[in-house]
């Protein structure tokens, strides 16, 4: 298990204890955890990255290039 996945699992457990299993935030973290576990089980050893963060960096870089900044 990757360190990021392990940290996400710990976060989920802490949130579940604090807010309960039916809290929307807890359910969102659970969904993300399950998705990442599925990806990692299909491709062991591959880094599981956050697509949203990667897309944001690419957009930010592109925006700076266009503006000449």
Task: Summarize this structure as a short list of keywords or feature phrases.
single chain; mainly alpha
Beta-strand residue fraction: under 5%
Q: Give the biggest sheet.
A: none
Looking at the structure, what is the overall shape? elongated
- Provide the gyration radius in Å: 16 Å
Mean pLDDT equals 77
Distance between the termini: 40 Å
Helix content: over 70%
Number of strands: 0
Helix segment tally: 3
Low-confidence regions: 58-62
**Computed structural class:** mainly alpha
Order of helices and strands: HHH
Question: What's the quick description here?
Answer:
By secondary structure, the chain is mostly helical. It is built from 3 helices and no strands. α1 packs antiparallel against α2.
Q: What is the element layout, followed by pairings?
A:
Elements lengths: L2 H17 L4 H19 L8 H17 L2
Helix pairs in contact: 1-2
What does this structure look like?
By secondary structure, this protein is mostly helical. It is 77% helix and 0% strand. The protein is built from 3 helices and no strands. Helix 1 (3-19) runs antiparallel to helix 2 (24-42). It starts with a helix and ends with a helix. The relative contact order is 0.12. Mean pLDDT is 77; it is low at 58-62.
């Amino acid at each position: 298990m990757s360190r990021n996945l392990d940290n996400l699992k710990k976060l989920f457990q802490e949130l579940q204890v604090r807010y309960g299993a039916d809290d929307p935030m807890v359910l969102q973290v659970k969904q993300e955890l399950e998705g990442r576990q599925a990806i990692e089980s299909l491709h062991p050893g591959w880094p599981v990255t956050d697509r949203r963060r990667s897309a944001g960096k690419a957009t930010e870089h592109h925006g700076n290039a266009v503006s000449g900044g």
